[in-house]
Amino acid sequence: MPKITFIEHDGTKHTVDAELGSTVMETALRNDIGGIVAECGGSCTCATCLVHVDEAWFAKTGGPSAEENDMLDSAFEVKPTSRLSCQIKVSEEIDGLVVYTPSYQGR
Amino acid sequence: MSETIKTDVLIIGAGPVGLFAVFELGLLDIKSHLVDILDKIGGQCAELYPEKPIYDIPGIPLITGHGLTDALLEQIKPFKPIFHLGEMVLKVEKLGDAQFRVTTDGDKVFECKCVVVAAGGGSFQPKRPPIQGIEPYEEKSVFYAVRKMEAFRGKKLLIVGGGDSALDWTLNLQPFAERLTLVHRRDEFRGAPDSVNKMRALVASGEMDMKIGQVTALEGDDGVLTAASIKTKDGVDRIECDAMLPFFGLTMKLGPVADWGLTMEEELIPVDTAAFETNIPGIFAIGDINTYPGKLKLILSGFHEGALMAQKAYHYVYPDKRLVFQYTTSSTSLQKKLGVA
Predict the structure, then answer these.
(1) Which residues from B are below 8 Å from A77, CB to CB?
(2) CATH architecture for the domain at A3-100
(3) Which residues of A touch B (CB under 8 A)?
(4) I need a labelling partner for B118 at 20 to 30 A (CA). Which of B47, B262, B274, B339 fits?
(5) Whether residue B80 sits in one domain with residue B193
(6) Would the CB atoms of A39 and B252 count as touching at under 8 Å?
(7) Using CA atoms, how far apart are residues B82 and B162, in angstroms rounded to an integer?
(8) Is the C-alpha dihedral spanning B176, B177, B179, B183 positive or negative?
(9) Do B150 and B194 lie in a common domain?
């Protein structure tokens, strides 16, 4: 099972198992990771599951789709490697992924 | 203050659960008005997932949020519900037994026999940018909505965002402002292409400015804004401004619900599972906003809760009448109400 490491804004680190085919957002919620709100439940319509992908992993996750990039306009402190975690699918490819969760998702 | 609107039941929230409550109440000859903070009907179905498929509505294998809203509106049409959109309920006061007064931020006053809170995750409110020390500026020089365009005449104005709200207000306020700067995180805009073209033309002709970046700090005193710092890819720019309008979409906040004297548990309203009534008799809570042992935040659960709520509400609205349970398949009386008999 792939592993994902979430690093919260205060530095708290969580390395958790991620189910293949689920999303990084779902993995965060299942493991009570702080900083992920996911108000819309994964519909790419609220921008409250923002993460900053570790630069070393950005080539693996890839950048946002056009739809996701539009939604990123409603997020804050967006960086070049920012993604909405509901739009990153868990696969063997991203085993070991490291993402940073922000301090604020707009609420 | 406007004239008081009298109704049997005031439903707070026009999402799917509030809409279906109109149906269940209507079958029992109970009239409803609905208030919603959004300017459209459908709640989260309209705001968060209008085009996304929903797979767990009984008997409907697949429907979008928008489709479900339309279907519910069709279903409740015989009961002629009256909607008050773009308004937030501020106060709910108990005047007596089965008598409540409800006041909105649009200065509307309702008097009703029951209140049904079907407010989902609370009220959709503008997202506040995480700029340190923004609070004192809010409602003084930082605004999340435009009430009077005239208020911005002669101002140095900063508008932040890339969607239709940011673009529409840019185009509407540019003629009023002394100088207008639109700030957005990227040189692409998701708003209507026509608005984007008009905005770019104004920039090209030197009538307004556009900055690609993010606002990181505000300067001023006592809530009076004088400048903002914009972090761009080349560094930090300082822009002089008197007012800022950030448009980052909406987020769900509990809002004034907590001030109505209802018992709350972690931003949810505990109810009994016989009638989904709150600690205040005559005030019900249905859908995502309530909690009880085994609660699931499903639309179908909210429908069930509305049906049981209506049975109890009947006794507040018609205290002297006996309620006879009937089916729409066989009752001529119900079919008459639905306009099919």
Answers:
(1) 130, 214
(2) Roll (3.10)
(3) 39-41, 43, 45-48, 69-70, 72-78, 103-104, 106-107
(4) B339
(5) no
(6) yes
(7) 34
(8) negative
(9) yes
Distance CA B318, CA B341 (A): 24
B82-120 pLDDT, tens digit each: 999 999 999 999 999 999 999 999 999 999 999 999 999
Give the SS3 label for residue B312. Answer: helix
Q: Which domain holds residue B162?
A: 128-248
For residue B1, pLDDT over 60 is answered with no
Domain boundaries, chain A: 3-100
What CATH number corresponds to the domain at position B204? 3.50.50.60
For residue B229 the two structure tokens come to 């710092």
Residue of A nearest to B212 (CA): A73
Whether pLDDT at B52 is above 90: no
Q: How far is B94 from B280, CA to CA, in rounded Å?
A: 9
**B185 and B112 fall within a common domain:** no
Q: Which of B230, B248, B266 is the last residue in one of the domains?
A: B248
Task: Please give the average per-residue pLDDT across B224-244, as a whole number.
Answer: 96
Both B191 and B104 in one domain: the answer is: no
In this structure, what token pair is assigned to residue A35?
A: 């900083």
In this structure, the answer to whether residues B205 and B138 fall within a common structural domain is yes
Is the whole-model pTM more than 0.95?
A: no
| Whether residue B240 sits in one domain with residue B310 | no
pLDDT of B240-299, one tens digit each?
999 999 999 999 999 999 999 999 999 999 999 999 999 999 999 999 999 999 999 999
- The residue from B248, B283, B309 where one domain ends is B248
Residues of B in contact with A107 (CB under 8 A): 127, 251-253
Q: Does one domain contain both B238 and B276? A: no
CA distance B123 to B87: 10
Q: B229 and B257: one domain?
A: no
In single-letter form, the type of residue at position B37 comes to: I
Instruction: Report the residue from B52, B130, B162 with minimal CB separation from A77.
Output: B130
Mutate to test the interface with B, among A36, A40, A45 (most CBs of B within 10 A): A45
Helix locations, B174-317, DSSP H: 193-204, 299-317
Both tokens of residue B255? 């809002």
In chain B, how many domains are there? Answer: 2
Are B249 and A47 within 8 A, CB to CB? yes
pLDDT digits (tens, 9 = 90+) for A16-51: 999 999 999 999 999 999 899 999 999 999 999 999
Average pLDDT, chain B: 96
